[in-house]
Design brief:
This protein has 3 domains: 2-62 and 139-230 and 444-457, Glycogen Phosphorylase B (Rossmann fold, 3-Layer(aba) Sandwich), CATH 3.40.50; 66-134, no CATH class; 242-439, 3-Layer(aba) Sandwich (Rossmann fold), CATH 3.40.50.2000. The protein has 18 helices and 15 strands. The protein has helices spanning 11-16, 21-26, 40-50, 66-87, 103-115, 122-136, 140-152, 168-176, 208-217, 246-253, 275-286, 308-313, 337-349, 360-365, 386-389, 413-422, 431-439, 447-457, and strands at 2-7, 31-36, 55-58, 156-159, 180-184, 202-205, 226-228, 260-265, 292-297, 318-319, 324-325, 334-335, 352-355, 370-374, 405-407. It is globular and about 65 Å long. The mean pLDDT is 93.
């Protein structure tokens, strides 16, 4: 069989090029080609890094036709409003963040929001989406995709990210050519956000929990179209060869191996606009603690600029930056394999991770590290309150579980950390139950192996 991996951004490199998927697929008589938007220099670098050779082709992200964008945005807003009613959770609508810059955009989104009022249920929403998909078939991008797929003749088109609208023409072209289409749900918080930009024949999800979410928010999708495969990003934690000796890791990054390591994992500026202030709070709380060392890892896809003042004020913070290749566009950012190794070792060697609602709590749970979620507002905050953040639908995965510790004030930082360090397992004792619920790993198979089986059998 011939598989075409459509990778619309650099993040997909970690899960699909650095994992064992391509190696396992091509170990038989299968062929894999990569359709990507990274550029020749970046993809050549990736080939060299992973030691794999494959045919690759440039994917060009074309602008949407105005009518297509209008229908997509209208159905997105309407679906969010339906999701709010269904879950009785108003925070779901916080995911509606259109760029209303300039009078044309303001007028456009006013029309979108008014039009969405006429879509009163999921059936009506999906019917309107179908009109948008028909309009996509009139686009130049659709015609280019038809030409490409007729030339390369894959049996399967696998889109590695489910929420990129410019992928839609390629998916529709594949379906019209009777090519089987797959996509994977990228993250644990994606489905309530109504950002399933296109429909494929099959869907790869992390867990039974995520499968139920997909069926709930997209009732037009049939249960038999969904494969529970977990996600390859957690496969790396099963590779013992990635774990360094503590002394070697400490020497490489200038750490004191005899101290307890606390990792503050940064969030992006939308999720946590005051993240630099939280880092300062943690550094202030720990500044006289001689037995601990604070490590800071910023979010990979943003600049470290807003943290520089804090890092200068507290030079004892060990800033270990993500090892990513960055370019002028976010979609072309991608991690190096060394960053996967770095993250595995941080999760393995650190005793505690602190952040504001990050999925990193799941990464560190793999090795039993305690996660603390910061759950207090900065005094000047007037918009992004933590009660709203933790009201997001994906945090309901913790319902009934004591999975993380909660730091509810600045004064609680130090005693919370002391408790975690002195009482192993007492804070967040259900962390692995939470991990199993969200990620659903398999005892004998990796996620890569399960994805390969799903791609081949269907």
């Amino acid at each position: 069989m011939k598989f075409c991996f459509l990778i619309p951004d650099g993040v997909g490199i970690r899960n699909y090029l650095y994992s064992d998927i391509i190696k396992d697929l091509t170990s038989g008589s299968n062929e894999v080609i990569i359709w990507h938007s990274l550029g020749k220099a970046q993809i050549s670098q990736v080939k060299e890094i992973v030691g794999l050779d494959f045919l690759d082709y440039d994917f060009i992200h074309r602008p949407e036709l105005p009518l297509v964008k209008f229908i997509r945005e209208t159905t997105t807003y309407a679906r969010l409003k339906q999701n709010v009613k269904l879950k009785e959770n108003p925070t779901i609508l916080d995911n509606w963040m259109p760029r209303k810059i300039g009078w044309k955009n303001k007028l456009f989104y006013k029309l979108v929001e008014k039009s969405a009022l006429f879509l009163n249920n999921y059936r009506e929403i999906h019917s309107f989406e179908k009109i948008g998909f028909l309009q996509v078939r009139k686009s130049q991008a659709y015609k280019e995709s038809l030409q490409f797929l007729r030339k390369t003749k894959p049996d399967v088109l696998f889109c590695t990210h489910q929420r990129v609208p410019s992928i839609t023409p390629a998916v529709l072209a594949a379906q019209d050519l009777q090519i089987k289409t797959f996509t994977a749900v990228f993250s644990w918080d994606n489905l309530p956000k109504a950002r399933l930009a296109f429909r494929t024949d099959r869907y790869l999800v992390w867990s039974d929990y995520m499968k139920d979410e997909l069926l709930t928010y997209y009732p037009e999708i049939d249960e038999n179209q969904i494969d529970v495969t977990s996600t390859t990003q957690f496969d790396f934690y099963r590779k013992e060869e990635l774990i360094d000796e503590r002394a070697d890791f400490a020497e490489k990054y200038g750490l004191d191996q005899d101290k307890k390591w606390i990792c503050f994992s940064g969030s992006d500026s939308i999720s946590s606009p005051n993240d630099h202030e939280y880092l300062e709070d943690v550094a202030e709380a720990l500044k006289n603690q001689n037995n601990v060392q604070l490590i800071f890892r910023e979010v990979p896809v943003e600049s470290i600029d807003r943290f520089k003042e804090v890092l200068s004020k507290f030079p004892e913070i060990k800033n270990i930056s993500p090892e990513w290749v960055k370019s002028s566009q976010w979609g072309s950012f991608f991690p190096l394999p060394s960053d996967i190794k770095l993250l595995v070792n941080l999760a393995y060697h650190c005793d505690v991770v602190i952040n504001l609602g990050s999925t990193m709590a799941l990464d560190f749970a793999v090795f039993g590290s305690t996660a603390f979620y910061l759950a207090y507002d900065q005094p000047h905050e007037r918009k992004r309150f933590v009660k709203d953040v933790y009201g997001f639908e994906h945090f309901k995965t913790m319902n009934g579980l004591d999975a993380v510790g909660w730091i509810r004030s600045k004064d609680a930082i130090l005693p919370s950390i002391h408790k975690a360090l002195s009482s192993q397992g007492e804070v967040g004792p259900d962390k692995m139950k939470w991990f199993e619920r969200v990620v659903q790993p398999h005892r004998t198979e990796t996620s890569s192996q399960r994805i390969v089986k799903a791609l081949i059998k269907n």
